[in-house]
Each structure stands twice: as structure tokens, then as C-alpha cells.
Specification:
The protein has an 8-stranded mixed sheet, with helices on both faces. It is α/β, with parallel strands linked by helices and 234 residues long. It is globular, with a radius of gyration of 17 Å. α2 runs parallel beside α3 and α2 crosses α7.
């Protein structure tokens, strides 16, 4: 009964795939709060989550998962997942993502979700996903602007093909984060179930000040130092 409203859309097989799926989510902040909420209530059965931050009052305008809690964001997120889906299995890494632990983080995942707030850490995650041929959904937000794309190593551009170094993302409002995080979660569910088309070779640009959504084509760089050597997904 819990999933009776979504099974007509994704089918019984789609629901089984969701329940068997293993999703790795990098970041338990604003984007992570929305992505993980949508995935857990949809029935995703296995999570790996990583975040080394602790909860601060300034987080709570957008990180609703942590309201009333203190301490580790990752442990708070685990409790939230199990409240939404008591049958889920959750591996927690209560550390900041880096080059030393990124391979452990993605080792069991069939898809990775980028809910990070800085491009330096994203680069480490991107490199590891390309090397292991694991798809990743990327999103970023700054104020009322955001972007989402689906990365399939060797098929689509990786982050290194189009993303600059940039600054850390510090300014955001909860309603905007919810929209962009929900789109990101939807990309994950479409990939797992095979229903619909994911954002391959396209960057969805979102301007919530003007309610503008634009899909911009993006291409692989043959000289990309991360994925330029790959051909047809190999």
C-alpha cells in the first residue's frame, strides 16, 4: 500500500528495482536532505551516505532533516532515512569526502548523487566515478539558480569537461533547494526504473527568480584529463 500511488507509473518491476537499489549520496546538507527524503520515501533499499559536518543553526532554513537534532549530519540523516523506510540499510561515513575515502564511499553503489557544495570535492568524486564506470547525478545551487545533469562515464561529459573550479556554494533558500534536489532525485529514480529519459549530454539550467528552465547541450572534451581516454563507455 505504501507505494501504490507510484507503482502505476513505474510498474512492479520498477518498484523491485528501487527496493534493491544501492545509492551513494555525497552530502547531507540542503540538497542531500531533499534527495534522500525523496529516495527513501520511494523505497530505495540501500544507501551509503557521507558527510563530516555537524549541524549548525544556519543550516536549518533548508536542511529540515536535522531540525531538533545536534551533532553529526550523517548520523542524523541515517535516523531520518530509517524513519521514512525502516527496512532500508544505511552505511554511514561520518567524515568529509576526500581522495583517500572516495573509493570506499562508491564501492557498492550502482549510482552516485552529488549533493556537495564545492567543486574541489566534486572533482574527487567525479574522478572516482569515471574510473569505476559508475553513473552520477550532479547538481549545484547558488541562491535561486541551479543546474542538474546526468553523467555516464565514456558516454556523456564528466564534470571535468565543463565545470570550472568555482567558489563554494553558500547562499541558498529552502524552497529553491527543494526544487533542484527533487529534480536530482527524479533523475536517480528514472535511471533505476528505466522509466523516462535522464539528462544525458544536457545541462538543465534553473532560474527560479524568473521560473526559467533551459536545457543546454554539453559535449565531451577529447582532451579532458579525466574521461578523454574513454571510448563508448569503456
Amino acid at each position: 500500500m505504501r507505494y501504490s500511488r507510484q507503482i502505476p507509473i513505474i510498474g512492479d518491476d520498477g518498484q523491485k528495482r528501487i527496493e534493491q537499489a544501492h545509492v551513494a549520496v555525497a552530502g547531507c546538507g540542503g540538497l542531500g536532505s531533499n534527495v534522500i527524503t525523496q529516495l527513501s520515501v520511494a523505497g530505495v533499499g540501500n544507501f551509503t551516505i557521507i558527510d563530516g559536518d555537524v549541524i549548525e543553526e544556519s543550516n536549518l532554513n533548508r536542511q529540515f532533516v536535522h531540525c531538533g537534532n545536534s551533532g553529526s549530519k550523517a548520523l542524523s540523516m541515517k535516523d531520518w532515512i530509517l524513519r521514512n523506510n525502516p527496512d532500508a540499510k544505511v552505511k554511514v561515513m561520518d567524515v568529509s569526502l576526500n581522495e583517500e575515502n572516495v573509493n570506499e564511499f562508491i564501492s557498492s553503489a550502482e549510482i552516485v548523487v552529488d549533493c556537495l557544495d564545492n567543486n574541489e570535492t566534486r572533482s574527487s568524486l567525479n574522478d572516482a566515478c569515471v574510473k569505476r564506470n559508475i553513473p552520477m547525478v550532479h547538481s549545484g545551487i547558488n541562491g535561486m539558480y541551479g543546474q542538474v545533469t546526468f553523467i555516464k562515464p565514456g558516454i556523456t561529459p564528466c564534470l571535468s569537461c565543463f565545470l570550472g573550479k568555482g567558489d563554494n556554494e553558500r547562499s541558498s533558500i529552502g524552497s529553491a533547494v527543494a526544487v533542484i534536489g527533487s529534480i536530482e532525485a527524479n533523475e536517480v529514480l528514472k535511471y533505476i526504473t528505466g522509466v523516462g529519459e535522464v539528462l544525458t549530454n544536457q545541462l538543465l539550467l534553473i532560474d527560479l527568480l524568473s521560473n526559467s528552465f533551459e536545457k543546454v547541450p554539453i559535449n565531451r572534451r577529447e582532451d579532458c584529463p579525466v574521461c578523454g581516454h574513454l571510448h563508448n563507455g569503456r
